[in-house]
């Protein structure tokens, strides 16, 4: 259990808030208060509505953290025998020519992906709500316009997600006892109605239909997460990646494991040649991740993260209630 949860048990939420309120730096004060609130919520008893989901393959690897230098880039990440390749899709541009829209990236893309997968566990056809504004707020974001606002960002990332293709490749044991390479090329969605030209708040009845192949694979390999954890980490792409990675990995460990910085960079880093920079970023965001995952056994050591066998962040009884099939041997 992370230190902040022990402090909550010793001094209570109000006691920790008083200490945090005395911090001089406004940003640090706000961050500490948010962390206390998230840690306190994580100690509560979750309900079925508190659940979110992500495909196990997308928990082990990640999307780019920032806009790629080129829209033509094929994004690749790997975790042991599992490999993720994301190929950018094409659309007809304003000039009438086919153009690539690039792969999805950043926190907005991650929030959209988790939303689609969470709702997709329950139904292949996903409703985005009665209006564009309602959907953006359901992602935990404010509704803002302009070139840097959330409306434009969500529109762009939705288009990138809808048009790109995810290639999942992993090595598994065949029935004969040898190694078998499995490759799945999948689009996440087969239908997407955007709010082109609509005013903010206008009815839109937008729905997303997951592809049959991805929906079936998601149902077999869905990893349960906590919505409050996603909400707390919504502004930090690395924090979201670490949380989903730990939620998948820790509950499957049978003994402690050293996840070296180089290996972690191949999974969630943006530049594997700068592992020292990634290590610094991980150390900075890990307290926020552990605040929303009380049972996570994680220690920062010289060469990486020491992972300990831990409970899932979600009680299994809640997952069983949704009849989600957690495969015994998900893609690795």
Describe this structure in words.
By secondary structure, the chain is α+β, with helices and mostly antiparallel strands. It has two domains: 1-44, no CATH class; 45-321, no CATH class. It has twelve helices and 14 strands. A four-stranded antiparallel sheet has the order 2-3-7-8. Strands 6-10-9 form a three-stranded antiparallel sheet. Helix 1 (3-21) packs across helix 2 (26-42) and helix 4 packs across helix 6. The two termini are 27 Å apart. It holds the Pfam family RepA_C. This is Plasmid replication protein. InterPro entries: RepA_C.
Task: Reconstruct the topology from this structure.
Elements: H1 3-21, H2 26-42, E1 51-55, H3 56-60, E2 75-79, E3 82-87, E4 90-92, E5 98-100, H4 106-122, E6 125-127, H5 132-138, H6 150-163, E7 165-173, E8 179-186, E9 189-192, E10 207-210, H7 212-220, E11 222-226, H8 227-232, H9 237-249, E12 257-260, H10 261-268, H11 275-291, E13 297-301, E14 304-308, H12 316-321
Antiparallel strand pairs: 1-11, 2-3, 3-7, 4-5, 6-10, 7-8, 9-10, 12-14, 13-14
Helix pairs in contact: 1-2, 2-11, 4-6, 9-11
């Amino acid at each position: 259990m992370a230190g902040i949860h022990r402090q909550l048990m010793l001094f209570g939420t109000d006691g920790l808030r008083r200490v945090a309120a005395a911090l001089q730096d406004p940003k640090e004060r706000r961050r500490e208060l948010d962390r206390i609130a998230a840690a306190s919520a994580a100690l509560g008893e979750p309900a079925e509505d508190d659940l979110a989901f992500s495909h196990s393959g997308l928990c082990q690897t990640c999307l780019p953290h920032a806009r790629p230098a080129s829209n033509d880039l094929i994004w690749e990440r790997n975790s042991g025998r599992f490999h993720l390749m994301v190929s950018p899709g094409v659309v007809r541009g304003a000039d009438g020519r086919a153009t690539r829209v690039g792969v999805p990236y950043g926190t907005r893309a991650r929030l959209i992906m988790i939303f689609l997968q969470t709702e997709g566990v329950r139904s292949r056809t996903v409703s985005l709500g009665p209006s564009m504004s309602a959907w953006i707020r359901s992602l935990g974001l404010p509704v803002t316009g302009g070139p840097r606002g959330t409306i434009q960002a969500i529109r762009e990332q939705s288009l990138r997600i809808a048009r790109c293709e995810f290639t999942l490749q992993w090595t598994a044991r065949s029935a004969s006892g040898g190694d078998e390479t499995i490759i799945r090329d999948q689009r996440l969605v087969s239908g997407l109605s955007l709010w082109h030209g609509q005013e903010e708040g206008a009815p839109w009845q937008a729905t997303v239909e997951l592809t049959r192949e991805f929906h079936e694979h998601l149902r077999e390999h869905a990893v349960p997460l906590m919505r409050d954890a996603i909400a707390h980490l919504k502004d930090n792409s690395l924090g979201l990646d670490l949380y989903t990675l730990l939620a998948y990995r820790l509950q499957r460990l049978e003994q402690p494991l050293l996840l070296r910085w180089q290996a972690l960079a191949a999974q969630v880093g943006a530049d594997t040649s700068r592992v020292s920079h990634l290590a610094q970023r991980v150390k900075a965001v890990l307290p926020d991740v552990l605040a929303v995952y009380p049972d996570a056994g994680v220690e920062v050591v010289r060469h990486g993260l020491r992972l300990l066998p831990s409970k899932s962040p979600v009680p299994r009884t809640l997952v069983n209630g949704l009849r989600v099939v957690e495969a015994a041997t998900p893609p690795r």
